[in-house]
Every structure is written in structure tokens, then in C-alpha cells.
Amino acid sequence: MSTEYGADQIQILEGLEAVRKRPGMYIGSTSSRGLHHLVYEIVDNSVDEALAGFCDTIEVTINEDNSVTVVDNGRGIPIGINAKAGIPAVEVVFTILHAGGKFGGGGYKVSGGLHGVGASVVNALSEWLEVYIYNEGKIYNQRYERGKVMYPLKEAGVCDPGKTGTKVVFLPDKEIFEETVFDYSVLKNRLREMAFLTKGLRIVLVDDREETPVKKEFHYEGGIKEFVQYLNNNKTELYPEIIFCEGTKENVYVEVAMQHNDAYNENCYSFVNNINTPEGGTHLEGFKRALTKTVNEYARANKLLKDSEQNLSGEDIREGLTAIISIKIEDPQFEGQTKQKLGNSEGRVAVDQIVSEQLTYFLEQNPAVAKIICEKSILSQRAREAARKARDITRRKTALDGMALPGKLADCSDKDPKNCEIYIVEGDSAGGSAKKARSRATQAILPLRGKILNVEKARMDKIYANAEIKAMITAFGTGIHDDFDISKLRYHKIIIMTDADVDGAHISTLLLTFMYRFMPELIKQGYVYLAQPPLYKIEKNKKVWYAYSDDELNAILSEIGRDNNNKIQRYKGLGEMDAEQLWDTTMDPKTRILLRVNMDEDTSSEIDMTFTTLMGDKVEPRREFIEANAKYAKNLDI
Length: 638
Known about the structure:
Layout: E1 11-12, H1 24-27, H2 32-51, E2 57-62, E3 68-72, H3 89-95, E4 99-100, H4 118-124, E5 126-135, E6 138-145, E7 148-149, E8 154-158, E9 165-172, H5 184-197, E10 202-207, E11 214-219, H6 224-231, E12 243-249, E13 252-260, E14 267-272, E15 275-276, H7 282-301, H8 314-318, E16 321-328, E17 334-335, E18 341-342, H9 345-365, H10 367-394, E19 421-426, H11 428-437, E20 443-448, H12 460-465, H13 467-476, E21 493-497, H14 502-518, H15 520-524, E22 528-531, E23 536-540, E24 543-547, H16 550-560, E25 567-570, H17 579-587, E26 594-596, H18 604-615, H19 619-629
Parallel strand pairs: 2-10, 14-16, 19-20, 19-21, 21-22
Antiparallel strand pairs: 1-4, 2-3, 3-9, 5-6, 5-9, 6-7, 6-8, 10-11, 12-13, 13-16, 14-15, 17-18, 22-26, 23-24, 23-25
Helix pairs in contact: 2-4, 2-5, 3-4, 7-9, 7-10, 11-17
């Protein structure tokens, strides 16, 4: 029996008062991330129509004035009068918080978005928003400014009698957001992900701000199987098949796609009703349990594991695995307001049962693939045992336990991590200058010799054996990977300070790769920074200026005059500066420039792909990346 989606299915829970006062409570932040979240919320409503089977195309356009238009060909938001509110249902959706077809009124079986908060919050945080609804040959329209209704819902024209859908156009409010310019690449990555997760849905993104409009279309009939293929594109797959499990249990629809590659990192991404759950939850637990149990049972039954050998751990089996776990559930219960983790127990049961059954069948039907998976897992188990021995030696202990900090570390005297910062410095000469320049109370210096190990191409045992990485692990104090404990962090600023050249950029990337793979919380919680040493020193008449970019150099030269008295030095390395210059330009908290390294969990799969492209084995994807992004590179000596 189909349920009607009409005006009275839009239920009202509470009014819309606090959004403009406390926008962070509703969209996370008023930074770039919150800005882009506005688009996701409107698109999520259209995706909900697609999940319900009523929409197959969504078009998103960034307009010349930086407003955004989202159009879908769904049923159109109901225009009838809502009995409880006495106003048109569309007005309820856009002006009353916690109102929508997602609160048991029968409008949707499953839905994403912010539990019906989406449309009204976007409206409240926009200078203006206009909605157009196409229904029964007519176009209906209403306009709002900063959440307030400007005129009653009205007929605004006619359309093809068979056309249905909703168009929303909005301009983010400059009074609310720190920046109001949309980043095309951020939207592109998120919309691509949405299309992967909604099999058959076509999403079109257009950027009309360019002289020649940029257009990208996403449409994946293979759904999450194509998602895994995309994520493994820059890696070497161990077998050609993408393992796919699908089914419904406990009223939960489950899709899982997975494939191993020859790398050592595990990349499992979980979603509920198309919402990314970066902290996992019951659905991810169910997947891990089923995978570990099924592979061990197969390995035992087929004598790939000897009776005397211990079971493979989940970590062993997931080494080099790319997996997407996507479930659709009618009433998702998330832990925490930000929907980071799923709590429904039926999610665990459904994923466990479906993956166990279908993976068992797949392994029996594909013995060659099963053998590859088991053999890689057994190799991982052996390397992990070697790594465990190395880790026991490396793991940071207190002075009472007898393990000293690394000898090359010049530590600071203050013991309160909030006051302390550590500079990771490239080379002994720059390290020497930094040690002389620093404030001994609060600034620690750790010089690294040469380029650290590329962890993208190394197993855990090699990582623990690397002297430079060992020094960082011991100095930071947190441990890595499963042993990581943020509460033991010894410095609340970890500052990467390298030369402003190609080698320096490479060393920074190696360090960030290590932190992203083994200590991601350092980046997520904002503890990692990049120092910005000056590019130029300008001297004239015994006066000195420093320039951190070519534009700044030109501005200084324009101010002091361009003549033969100017002495311009281009710094190629930190070692060219004496201690006083290094302090004045790069280390003095009053005058230095630091860039905080940020990580947006909404695009974690894209971050992973970028690191794999830059630091992995395949050359061709790296060449393509460099060619596509060379225009953004600045101040690199070639």
C-alpha cells in the first residue's frame, strides 16, 4: 500500500528561532565547511526523493553571483495547506525547524539530511532564498529573506503538465559566514560521492562563474561497486573482481562492495542513508565481524592456516582493503549531534548476516581470489608480529620507565602541552639555527636527517624500524595506529618547517602522509601546522624587509622604490638564515605566519586518493595530478 505524500504528512516539531544566533549548532561551523554544508542539505532533500524512487536527476549550479541553484525532477514539495500550521506545506518546510516528511508522517521510508532541519536552516542562513515547485502544469513560487516570508506562495507561471520537481535558489548570508565563495572542487567531490551511493541517480554540477562554464556529470549504474573501482584506480588490485554483497534483513537494506590492493592501508568507508559516518558504528562493526569470521573459517577449512597457527586478526585481513559499507534504515539513531556514528543494533545484525552468507558463497565459488586474500592476510600477520616487537621498544614511556626522549630532540622546559610546540626541521644546519633561535621554555626542535620513509609504500615493521619516524613517535608521546592516545600528546602545536623549494615540499608531504595514515587525530583536532619562512630578504639603506610571496616583494619594492640600492636575497633554504633572522621571520609567535593543516571528513575518500596518487607506486595518475594542478603551485624552484 503506497502512502500519500501530501500537505498533512509535513509534521511540525518546533519553531525556527535560534539558527541565526547559533549557526554552528546546526551546520557545524560558519567557515568554508559550513558554507558548503548548505548545498549538501538542499541536495540531500532531492536525494531523499531519489531514494524514495521519485527522482532520477539533480542539477546543481553555482551562479555568477555565488548563489546556488538546486533543481530536481521529484514530486515537488507539497503546496497544500498544512492542517496543523494553517500555511502551505512548502512554507512550513522552509520556515519551521524540524519540519518535513521525515518524522513518521509517511513521506519517506528512509532519508538523510539533518532530520528535517536542512531546508529551514539553509533559509535562515541565506540573504535570500527562492523556491519554485512544478506541479500539474503550474509553477508555484515563494521568496524568503534571512528566513522571513516576503510574500505568500503564489502561482508564477505554467509548465509542461507532466513536469514535477523543486527548484531552490539561495545566496549565503555574508553576515553569518566567514567566507561566501563556493569551492567547485569541494562540491564536485561530495556530489560524486552522493551519485556513487545512489545507484542510477544522475547529478549534474555546473559552475557559471567561469568565462566558459564548467560542467561535470555523475551517473553510476554500478553504484558502490564503481565507487570501489574509483578509489582503487591509483592502486594495483590483487584480483579483478569487486566483491559485492546486497540484501535486506531486519528491515535494513545493506550494500557492501570491497576489493584488496597491494598497499598496506585499510580504507573502509561507511554510510547510513547516504550520510558519511566517519566514526563508523554498528554497521561497520557488523562488516568487520563478518569479514574476520568468514575469512578465518575459509582459511581453516582449506588448510591455508595450520592448526598450530593463531587466527588472522581483522586488521590482518583488512590490510590493503578498500570497502564501502552502505545501509538504508528507516529510523537511524546516531550517537552525537554530528551523525558521526550509528547506534542501531539492527544495523550490526543485518550487515553481519548478509556479508557472512554472501562472502562465504563468493570465496567458495572463487578459490583463486580466496587464496590471494588469505595469503596477503597471513603475510600481514607475520609483519604485524615483527612490528609488535619493534613497537614495544619504540612505544613512548615516561622517564620512570627508563626510555629517554630522542637524543637529537632539543626539548622545551615547560611541561604543559598547551604551552608547548615542536618544530620538525629539515636538516642539521637548519636544526642548529632553530635551536639557537628558539624560546627554550616553550619551543622544542626535532631535526630530521634527509627524507623520512614513504609510509604509503611500507608495512608496519618497516615503519617502526625507521629512525626518523621512531624519533617523532617518541617525541610526540601519543603512540601510533591502535596505540594512539591523544591525551598523551606533549605539544599542542606540531610545526613542520622545511625549505621553500621542491625538496622541502616533498619532505612536508612525506611528514603529512605519515601523520594522516597513523595519527590522523593530530590533523583532525588542529594540532599540525606548516611554518611559512620568507622567500625574500630586501635590504636598502641598512633597513631590512622580508617578503613571503612574489606579490609581497613587489609591494615592498613599489613602496621603497625600485633602484640599484636594493639588495634582494632569495632564500632557498632555512640554513641560509642566522638564528636571529629565523626567529624574527619564522619562529616568533608575534610575527610568524603558520598555516594550520585542516582535514574535512566529508571528503575523506578524496583525501585518501590524493595521498595515494602523490605517494603511491603508480606514475601515470601522479603525472595527471601534477598536470591538472600545476597552475596552483607557487614559489617552487624548478
